[in-house]
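INFO  loader      accepted 1 record
INFO  loader      residues=96
INFO  predictor   begin
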Amino acid sequence: MTRSEIAELHYAVGQLRQSIGALRSHYGDAKSVRRLENDLERLVIDTDEFDQSPPQEIVSRRKDETIYVPDSKSDEAAWMGAQDEGLGFHSRPRTK
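INFO  predictor   done
INFO  writer      dumping tokens
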């Protein structure tokens, strides 16, 4: 994460703090406002921790790296009895 991204994160947390402050002034000590304040406090802690000691960055895959997927027929037995979610025929045995 670059310094500008970390600064943007701090800014976003500050904006959230203002929004939660406005909620508190409007709704008082409501349970949901207290939970939001607790979540905000955790975000502040995590943001500061990240800023002080960022984790090691992962090496991303190159954009031009091609991943080959074999077009050979897969083992149909692995899919027997599986749900075809979203296709409209649940719990029906698969046909060949």
